[in-house]
Amino acid sequence: MSNKPTLNTSLSPALLHLYDLSNSVVVIIDVFRATSTIASALYNGAKCVIPVDSVPKAIDISKSIGGIAAGERDGMIAEGLQHGNSPLEYTRDFIENKTLVLTTTNGTRLLQMALDKNADTIISGSFPNLSAVCDFLVKENKNVVLGCAGWKDRFNLEDTLFAGAVINRIAQHFTIHCDSSLMAETMYLQNKNKMIDFAPQLTHYHRLVERFGLIEDIRYCLTDDVANVLPVYMDGKLVAQ
Amino acid sequence: MSNKPTLNTSLSPALLHLYDLSNSVVVIIDVFRATSTIASALYNGAKCVIPVDSVPKAIDISKSIGGIAAGERDGMIAEGLQHGNSPLEYTRDFIENKTLVLTTTNGTRLLQMALDKNADTIISGSFPNLSAVCDFLVKENKNVVLGCAGWKDRFNLEDTLFAGAVINRIAQHFTIHCDSSLMAETMYLQNKNKMIDFAPQLTHYHRLVERFGLIEDIRYCLTDDVANVLPVYMDGKLVAQ
User: Fold this and answer.
1) pTM for the full model?
2) Is A43 among the domain residues?
3) Which residues in chain A touch residue B183, judged by CB atoms under 8 angstroms apart?
4) Do A155 and B179 touch (CB under 8 A)?
5) What residue in B sits closest to A16 (Cα-Cα)?
6) Cβ contacts (< 8 Å) between B178 and chain A: which residues?
7) How many CB atoms are located within 10 Å of the residue B151 CB?
8) Domain interval for residue B58
9) Are A186 and B190 inside 8 Å of each other by CB?
10) Is residue A2 part of a domain?
11) Domain contains A154
């Protein structure tokens, strides 16, 4: 028997209940774009990111603490907000020493689910902070659940590809009996050298690029280690560790 | 705009609620082994297969109609039954002109869910009846949901590979905006010529082969068109169309 901790991949928030989170590090993965934006903001000096589940809550909290309210619904800046869910919006000039109060369609909801299920530790992952995530998971040496945010509970490939990237780097440190993880690594290996070319096949690509012209966002969100911080959730906030 | 019907792939029963089944042909996919067994029994002349959700129900119904009660729980012949969920058990000598009353861990449950969601048409699919399924779906020209039974709501690769095989054959007849389908076809194309060699990587392979020695079952369940009938569900029974 191996004494290595386990690693599992949850392909949708609707499958998260299948995994025991109470002894696990849960990685929230919302590649397009929440967790890429969180990495970007923290990398560029944001004090913290407060994820919230509604626009009114984002506005209320940001007012009370002097933060930046931001978020999207269905890929667009949410009504009533001035700032959206683009990682490129959160430059150092704009976000340094500020608090970002962020609400998104999928990532925020998944994080709340992980909290409700008493996850041992919650971090957020995306290609921009791939190495920081992998280093942390190996160092912690605990069970891991890679939690894909998907799109309104549907499977999506970009989150799966990120899970595959993590697995490809750290698999030897874990016991993996999980077809989702095997599939994720296979899909990653097949596409890792052509991620930008593969992107137009993704349903979410069409949502973002054809409807909103966010090709630069897509490129950023698929680039390794351009915002290599580790966002850890504690006391209601994601802070860079 | 395309007038082609849509095709979607549901990777787990826990994701089936995301799809509109009321105007769709739903393909129940439980490669290891329920839908392979259903194909085998009908191909070998069974009058019909009655899927039921419990062992007592299988026994009661088979007694009242003089049928064969069969089924598995967790991969083994279910307690109280003499016949299991092996497609190789249902030879022509044994099953011709008989009714099989079958209860299984995953496939039967998914079929009930599709019924509850008012699926327009329900058929069952597996590699042994791949061509019959594809021919029917093209001929019907309706929306399609490929429903993977998975393992206790977890994603599994063998059902996904079958979905990919169907998509690979009939994609040109459908509108497909579905990352699950794209992934399924990719995984299928990568493994179609080495299915038996790939099988040992599947979690379910270990469940069946290492614990129960069912390697011949696995081979049968991964072979195209060896029981090429079309099981259609109507009035509580799966019958060969």
Assistant:
1) 0.95
2) yes
3) 155, 157, 160, 183, 187
4) yes
5) B154
6) 203
7) 23
8) 7-240
9) yes
10) no
11) yes
